[in-house]
C-alpha cells in the first residue's frame, strides 16, 4: 500500500486545548473545527477543507507521569497488529496496544528501541487526497533526534521501507541522514546531542516566511529555542515551544 511508511496524521496532546487552538491558528493560519467524536473532545486543525492535525487533552496517565505536552506523528502501515509485533521484536515498545477508532481506523502508540514516541495507523476509509507537502500549513519535514543513528536508521528502514537519501556531515553533531519514502525525501535523522535527555520526533510546519511567524510565536506566548537557521536548499527553519510547552518547528522558503 502506498501509505505504508508515510506520515499520515499529527496530533497535539496538551494541557489547555482552547489556548493551544488560539496559538496555532494565529501562528500557522490553521482553521479549527470540532471532530464530532463521541465521548472525547477532539479538535481538527485544517488548511481549507483539508484536515492536517488533531488537538486533544493529554490523557490522565501522561499527566501523572509528568509527560509534557507534545506533538505525536502517525505513520501509515498496511497492518497495525503486524507492525506493532515487529516493533516489539526489534527492541521497541508498544505503549498502547492496537485499538480501533470507530469509523476512522486502527492505531497503536509505540517507541523505537531508544524511546522516541510515534504512532502507527491504518485508516478504514479512503486515503486523504495527495497534496503538495510544501504547501503552507502542512507538515513539510519530519526529524528524529535519535538515541543512535547507526541503529535507529535500520530499525525504521526495516519497519517502513525508508531509504537513505543524502547524508550531511554536521561536524561535531555527526551525520544528518535524510531519508526518503517512495523516492521522495520526507525527513532527516541524527544522533541527538548528549545534553538532550531523550530522543524525540520533531515536525516542521510550513509557513510562507519565518521572521513574521517568529513575531506571531512571541506575541502568542511561545518561546524560540533554536534561532532562525538557513538549511540546504535555501529554506529557513526555527524551533519553538508553544505556551503549554510542546516543542514544534516551522519551515519557510524565506526569512
Automatic annotation (TrEMBL):
Gene3D superfamilies: 2,3-Dihydroxybiphenyl 1,2-Dioxygenase, domain 1 (3.10.180.10). Residues 6-123, 138-253 form the VOC domain. Signal peptide: none annotated. InterPro entries: Anthracycline_SecMetBiosynth (IPR052164), Glyas_Bleomycin-R_OHBP_Dase (IPR029068), Glyas_Fos-R_dOase_dom (IPR004360), VOC_core (IPR037523). It holds the Pfam family Glyoxalase. This is VOC family protein. It comes from Ensifer adhaerens (Sinorhizobium morelense). The lineage of its organism: Bacteria, Pseudomonadati, Pseudomonadota, Alphaproteobacteria, Hyphomicrobiales.
